[in-house]
Amino acid sequence: MPLLPQRRSGRCLSSIQNTRIPMHKLTLPLLATLLLAGCTSTPAAKPDAGQALHGQWRLTEISGHGIALPEALIQFDGEQQAVSASLGCNRIFGRYQLQRDKLSLSTPATTLMACADPEISQLEQRLSRALEAADGGNYRIENDVLRLQAADGTAVLKAHRQARP
User: Fold this and answer.
1) What are the backbone dihedrals phi and psi of residue 120, each rounded to the nearest 5 degrees, phi first?
2) pTM
């Protein structure tokens, strides 16, 4: 039979139009297909990068210098794509985006409170510069340790994940 419609007695006929397949002959192949589709494995979902970074981290190094302040925290909010950090006096904050293992950070803003300890003020400035340097760099999380690197590979920040409530 030709595949193109034919003109007969004023009507257009096609080979498909006149073909009838009994329903019982369709049922078995359809059921077999559905059963096989149900048996295929679905690959495990990879954790969303934003969710891996999401949470509160205790800062332990800024630009290669160790810090031992229990209140030195950085927090990533995956839903709002917001980052904030504090060393106990001012708050540093901004926005971030992730693309694979690359981190884009906005220029950090900060509150401007006078800190009683000038050392904390210096560390806050170092942290702000470190976050600027991390823009366009890499991030890596291994064993609940976060490491941020500048685009040239220089270590910028190291932090340990805080326990999730």
Assistant:
1) -65, -40
2) 0.68
Rounded to whole angstroms, the Cα distance separating 99 from 53 reads 12
DSSP letter (8 states) at residue 165: -
Contacts of 5 (CB under 8 A, 6+ apart): 12, 13, 14
The domains located in the chain, with CATH, are 6-39 (no CATH), 49-161 (2.40.128.270)
User: In the Cβ-directed half-sphere of 21, how many Cα atoms lie within 13 Å?
Assistant: 9
Per-block mean pLDDT, blocks of 10 residues, the chain (165 long): 53 54 61 57 48 92 94 96 96 94 94 93 96 96 96 96 78
Neighbours of 37 (CB within 10 A): 8
Amino acid at 122: Q
Question: Residue 131 has which token pair?
Answer: 């976050």
